[in-house]
């Protein structure tokens, strides 16, 4: 049983979840996350973000802690 647990730990260390932009489909390394009340949306570029939300809408979501900018390593 110890061997199986050790193998699982090694597998999980190599696993990295990738997020893709909801607009262009590119893998996100740095971008924007928005919670729309039902699920999370991901945008890699400001251009993609603002094709869905205006700058004013995004600022409002930031103030309400429903959006943030992030970086994935």
Describe this structure in words.
The longest helix has 13 residues, at 2-14. The protein has three helices and three strands; from the N terminus they run αββααβ. The model has no long low-confidence stretch (mean pLDDT 84). The chain has one domain (18-71). The chain has helices at residues 2-14, 46-52, 55-63; strands at 30-35, 40-43, 67-71. A three-stranded antiparallel sheet has the order 2-1-3.
Compose a concise summary of this entry.
By secondary structure, the protein is an alpha+beta fold.
Compute the number of helices: 3
Rg calculated over all Cα atoms = 16 Å
Q: How many structural domains does the protein architecture include?
A: 1
What fraction of the residues are assigned to beta strands by DSSP? Answer: 15-25%
Structural class: alpha+beta
């Amino acid at each position: 049983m110890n061997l199986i647990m050790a193998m699982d730990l090694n597998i999980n260390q190599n696993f990295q979840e990738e997020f893709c932009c909801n607009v262009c489909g590119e893998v996100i390394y740095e971008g924007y996350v928005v919670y729309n009340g039902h699920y999370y949306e991901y945008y890699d570029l400001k251009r993609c973000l603002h094709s869905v939300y205006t700058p004013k809408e995004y600022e409002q979501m930031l103030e309400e802690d429903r959006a943030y900018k992030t970086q994935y390593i």
